[in-house]
Amino acid sequence: MHRLVQTTISHCPKAVVMLLAGFAGCGGPTLCPVEGKIVYTDGTPAKDLEGYTVTFESVDQAATELRPGISAWGVVEADGTFRIGTYQPGDGVVPGRHRVAICPPPSEADQPPPPPAIPLKYANFDTSGLQVDILPGVNKITLTVEPSPPSHPPRTKK
User: Fold this and answer.
1) What percentage of the chain exceeds 90 in pLDDT?
2) Separation of alpha carbons 151 and 154, rounded Å
């Protein structure tokens, strides 16, 4: 888990406070199960987001100078689905409104990062435009994102 935390932090700097909240002791708030999927604007499953991290940041229980915020995260599977956990993988999320960020997986240390499958605006809570309301009971979430525009090879001079 330590490696995943480092990876997530390097790609989503604002996730630091939220991930640290996940290491808090027992006796925390009630958690609601969250199962989700990511789809593109045309409705197709975002299967190419496998390995991306989905992070929920509680709006209602945001970090202050006196206490850390509460957040939760999960990893996107090959079929575009994910399960979110706060204290351990898949254990659920505190109820209430959450901002959402979706971060690309790390690249190999000696390799340049591949072009992102979705615009980098989704990797930041302030620019993703994604919010969800978590209610008591099982929550089935669908996040709709735009794909990155196709990259064009550089023009060559003739």
Assistant:
1) 60
2) 9
